Fold these 3 entries.
Entry 1:
Amino acid sequence: MPIFKKTYSLYKEFYGIRSSVSKQDRYTVYLRVENSMLEIIEGILLASQQTKIEKSPTLEKVSLNLNFLRVLIRLMKDVKAIDIKKYSTLEESIDEIGRMLGGWIKSTKEA
């Protein structure tokens, strides 16, 4: 499942920057971003096992979590918990996941 692989890779990439995040930020916004990513992964796995009727609300929740993740990542950049290069890399991955998720949501509503 490409969206799962992309989200899994995003988490691994984000986890890799843990040591560069200050201790103060690591236990606040970093932790919140990490939990949000794990919820997104969980939602994608859950949706992959559901019937088409059950998928729609799950995918909508994943989409909401993804939008919240965008805000948190931007916040990390704004408070300088991560640099602009890391922000750009993470944001590109989130955008791609968003496009994949949008296509999945659209396909469940059409069928």
Entry 2:
Amino acid sequence: MIPVLDSPPARLHDPREAQTASMVGYLRDIMLTDPIQRERFHAIFLDSRRAYITDAAMGAGRSAFLKLRMRDLFGKALSVGAQGLIIAHNHPSGDCRPSEIDIKATHRLNEIGQALDIELLDHLIITETALYSMRAGGHL
């Protein structure tokens, strides 16, 4: 588990760290809006240099369940010419550890992305007080 504070560290010497902190803050604002009891899924689409193209909400669900249509996610990625993808969803329970369903879905998303030449850079699970990275956790 990788805890993240509400604000980034006072000094971010590496511009990539500042960009990452900014992206996480942006996703937290989107994912943790009222009603926080609903799971939300969001995607950030990137070009070949991993620069931002666009982002989109890709679904919302009940408190502990989210239905994601992979066709919609990858259709959007292809339509904007994305070559990289960062996805995120929230856990309203406050526990940012991935479920077996989260892990299996990440593997499936990665397989589909590879087949389409779209790199799944990370799958983040966001709560009010923490963040879990599937890449850092060894699931990608």
Entry 3:
Amino acid sequence: MRREESLRRRRAQATEQFAIDRGAHEVAHAVYDKVWSTLRGERVREALHKLPDPQREALVLAYFGGYTQREVAALTDTPLGTVKTRMLTGMRRLRDLLGGGSVTDGGAL
């Protein structure tokens, strides 16, 4: 009986320790994700500030404001073709500033 009770206590302690370790791992992983996300956001903001104002404006309105290219054109009183060109050129420049990879597939971010 004592041996079984001792075995039960050891199993319970091991299970509890595993749960604590797993919880600590999950917290560490969440912190890592938050730090990485913050650093990535800072890099994108820095890169955006290096773009010419018209390109930055179009990209910010579209990606952070949620506007379509047509809406960006209307908001900025700019021809739609010009907005498209500014966005494409801006995205290419961002890709270069962020070290290659595709900005849209998350490669460099």
